[in-house]
Amino acid sequence: MKLRYGEGGLVPAVVQDSVTGEVLMLAWVNEESLARTVETGYAHYWSRSRGKLWKKGEESGNVQKVVSIQTDCDRDALLIRVEQTGVACHTGEPSCFFEKVHGDPSGTSAIIPDLKRVIDGRRDNPKEGSYTTALMADENNMLKKIIEEAGEFALAAKDGDVEEMAWELADLIYHVMVAASKTGLPMDEVYAKLSERRK
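The structure corresponding to this sequence follows.
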């Protein structure tokens, strides 16, 4: 498929975490960097300020393993889904999009990657007094909580109580995320199974 490169032979690339859907950064791609990305399986971009090709993470080690590349309907922009090692932003933030200009992202899916980082952090570095750490240390309780929260969500759904449903679904999602992190469940396999349910 031929892309419609713009000024300077470049197209913008939105880079997204393949597991959480978090938008990590915006970069620029030319034919050479795209070819290198496809050839190596790791993200390469074109630096407009330095005027050269660069591999993401070549100095920091925060590389991006490419999972998929798609183009928009006009073929003048790319969406690159990656497995991010470390952080994406040179500031040390997980994503380059962390400064608010308007509105509040707290009621959006932005919580999922943030929560996943906390949960994975408790798995890798247990913290005394943390509920997540305690759950991961007690497998039976961790798994019982999933069953409990699923039942409570079902009852709330039967009653049609929106506030209670939101509360119980949040509990269920959190407890499932803890178990998924603790067991090392590969989310790409989960997504592949979900894709089979589009009927």
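The chain has a mean pLDDT of 95.
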